[in-house]
Structures are given as C-alpha cells and as structure tokens.
Amino acid sequence: MSENKKAALIGCGMIADTHLTALQNAGADVIGVYDRNPGAAAAFAGARGLKVYDSLEDLLADETALVSVCTPSGTHGELAEAIMEKGKYAIVEKPMALTVPECRRIMETEQRTGRFCAPISQLRFSRVYREVKAALDEGQFGRMIVGLLSMKYYRAPSYYAGSWRGTVKMDGGGALMNQGIHGIDMMCGLLGYPVSVSGKTATLLHDIEVEDTAVASLVFPDGTLGVIDGSTAITHAKARRLELCGAKASVTIEEDAIRSAEGITLSCEEGSGYNSYSDPTAISTLLHENQFRNILAAAADEEALYYTSRDAMRTVAVITAVYESSKTGTAAVPLL
Ligand SMILES: NC(=O)c1ccc[n+]([C@@H]2O[C@H](COP(=O)([O-])OP(=O)(O)OC[C@H]3O[C@@H](n4cnc5c(N)ncnc54)[C@H](O)[C@@H]3O)[C@@H](O)[C@H]2O)c1
Q1: Quick one: 77 and 98 in the same domain?
Q2: Is residue 284 part of a domain?
Q3: What domain count does the chain have?
Q4: pLDDT of 259-271, one tens digit each?
Q5: What spacing in Å lies between the alpha carbon of 171 and ligand 1's midpoint?
Q6: Under a CB-based contact definition with an 8 Å cutoff, are residues 151 and 180 in contact?
C-alpha cells in the first residue's frame, strides 16, 4: 500500500503539461522534473514552481512513489525499468516500448520489483469506450461481423523536421506506431487482439524513415474481420472513425463520441472535443486524468490497474505484425 502520492516527470516537451495537469487533478503531488535538455526543464519547471533535477539519478533518488515518462518513444523501455528498479511505479506514454521483446522485459521487471508500469492509453478511459465495451460484453451487438478503423491524419513537415519523430530508432514506426496506436488499441480493447494480420506500409509524402501511410486487414479471435487505414499524409484530415458492425447492432465512433448507432441506444454523443487528427497538440487532459485516478488508486492497492503492460504489449504486437507482414508479403501472427 502506497500512501505516498509524490510524483516526478521525465521529459518536458509537448505532452508534459497534459501529464502535470492531469496528475495534479487526479490527486498526485508533482514535485519535480528532469529533461536531458536543461533549458527545457528550467523553462517548464520555472513557470510552474517545480524542482528541476540535475540528472536522472537525482530524480530516481528522491522520495517520489510515481514517475511519469514523457520522453521520445525509443527511451520508454529503459526508463520504465530504471524507475521500477528503484521501487517506484512507472507511468509511460504510448507506445510503452517499440518492440514486443522490450515490452516483455518491462513485464519481467514488474514481476521482479513488485512495482507496475502503467502505459498510457487514454481512450480506454473515455465514456464512449466504456459504454460500447459494456454493450459488447452484454451481447447487445450480437455476433460481431466487421470492425473498420480509419485514421486519416495530417502532420505538417515541421512536426517531423529535426525531431525524433519519424525515426526508426526513437519512433519505431509512424502512422501506426505513433498516431494510429490510439485507435488500434481502442479497437483491440473492444474486439480482442487479432490472431492474424496482413498489411502494407508506405512512405508517400513525408521525408521520414518510417511509414506515413498503412493499411491492414485483421482476423479477430472469434473470426470477426477488421480493416485499418492510418496515415499522417492526408492534407484534408478527418476525424478518427471506428465502425463496429454486429448481427444485431452497429455503431460509429468518431474521435471519442458516438456519431451514429443502429439497433442499439447509446448515450455518449459528446466527446472531449479534442481532435488531434490535424493538430498534435489538441489532447484532452480529462482522459489522462481519468487514467491517472486509476493508476493512483492501483498504487494504493485500492483498485486493480485497468490498463496494464500486457494490454500495451499486445497492441505493440499487433502494430509490429503489420510491419512484418508488409515486409514479408504474407500474413503475420502477432506475438500476443
Ligand atoms: N497520449 C497522447 O495522446 C500523446 C500525445 C503526444 C505525445 N505522446 C507521447 O509522449 C512522448 C513524448 O512526446 P512529445 O511530443 O512530448 O515529445 P517532445 O519531443 O515534445 O518532448 C520530449 C522531451 O523529452 C526530452 N528527452 C529526450 N530524451 C530524454 C531522455 N533520455 N531523458 C530525459 N529527457 C529526454 C527532450 O529533451 C524533450 O524535451 C512520446 O512517446 C509520444 O508518443 C502521447
């Protein structure tokens, strides 16, 4: 049982303020930050009255119970392990790590240290996800037939220029591993993790090492079929759309709100109102806050962790299976 609600942040870039605000709103006491760029840490901390740690070691030596990782994706695995090895709980932005073996190492470290790594997947903490999941679990959709996920995003060249974004080493992938992971994780939470994946990726517009566009077909465990498209190259971007069609009912979710429902009554027509398909900074604090409430309760042994490292590992497995299939030209089995 941890009564200690003291927290620290690693990485003071774009997503850091969402973490700070959401952690504070959820009841954590954020005391300091570390960034390998001292200027970024000083600018972030100064305006918010936080302590700046001079090194990762200093941060890890402090009396915090939780550390939130807001650094480039390729650093997540190593940082999560270092945090848990110091007896603290790790909160790690998506993707939890870039490969399945790295995700498994995080899970082994959880076992060894008795601490957890809580990967971020804020859509699983949205009203729309909870409502549709409950209806699916109650059988209100009947036998599921297809799930169709469309993510036609746009990112400007400046988003990638001179950044870790779009690199193999630090982003691990593009339209799917960075942006599309949100929709894919939501789809897998609702329909299960696919047992077979066939995909094709391409870099069609941006000057980046990873894919800016991908398509895939999926087979879910009960035979339900799925289709995904994901891109960051669609200049006229559109809201993320997930259509779930069952024998008795269908629903279309746009971003985190229900756009239409047939054969079923669902109430969640209002989402958070943030649309990051065209603006990477348009992120709702509320959904992170919902997730942080659960993480803090889990650290205090008051609730089970709702979204775990195993969930995040399986989503990374689905995405990396699309990459593998694209390379080999044959269907791939995600390493679930
Ligand atoms: N959940 C979401 O909706 C969401 C949205 C945006 C970003 N993200 C994720 O958040 C993470 C960070 O993204 P961002 O856009 O804030 O990046 P960013 O580039 O804006 O900020 C990253 C910061 O981390 C610092 N940094 C880099 N390596 C470090 C290290 N080893 N130790 C300490 N500091 C280090 C950099 O100096 C920089 O200040 C990524 O993994 C991204 O996928 C999630």
Answers
A1: yes
A2: no
A3: 2
A4: 999 999 998 767 7
A5: 10
A6: yes
Closest ligand 1 atom number to CA of residue 178:
43
Residue 336 lies in a domain: no
**For residue 265, what are the domain limits?**
123-279+314-328
Q: Give the dihedral of Cα atoms 305, 78, 206, 240; nearest 10 deg.
A: 0
Same domain? 113 vs 139: no
Portion of the chain with pLDDT greater than 70, in percent: 99
Ligand 1 pocket, residues with Cβ under 6 angstroms: 10-15, 34-37, 40, 70-73, 75, 93-94, 120, 122, 178, 283
**Nearest protein Cα to ligand 1, atom 5:** 15
Please tell me the distance between residue 164's alpha carbon and the centre of ligand 1 in angstroms: 9
Are 125 and 290 in contact by the 8 Å Cβ rule? The answer is yes
Claim to verify: residue 151 and residue 94 sit in the same structural domain: no
Considering only CA atoms, which residue is closest to atom 37 of ligand 1? 37
Residues 28 and 113 grouped into a single domain: yes
Same domain for 107 and 144 = no
> The domain spanning residue 177 has which CATH number?
3.30.360.10
333 in any annotated domain: no
Give 165 Cα–ligand 1 centroid separation in angstroms: 9
Minimum CA distance residue for ligand 1 atom 36: 11
Atom number of ligand 1 nearest to Cα 16: 16
Q: How far is the CA of 153 from the centre of ligand 1 (A)?
A: 19
pLDDT of residue 283: 78
| Closest ligand 1 atom number to CA of residue 122 | 1
Q: What is the CATH number of the domain that holds 56?
A: 3.40.50.720
* pTM of the predicted model over 0.90: yes
Instruction: Return d(Cα 126, Cα 200) in angstroms, integer.
Output: 30
SS3 of 105-168: HHHHHHHHHCCCEEECCHHHHCHHHHHHHHHHHCCCCCCEEEEEEEEECECCHHHHCCCCCCCH
Assigned domain for 178 exists: yes
Pair 154, 258 in one domain: yes
Distance 305 CA to ligand 1 centre (A): 23
And the tokens for 137?
A: 């679990």
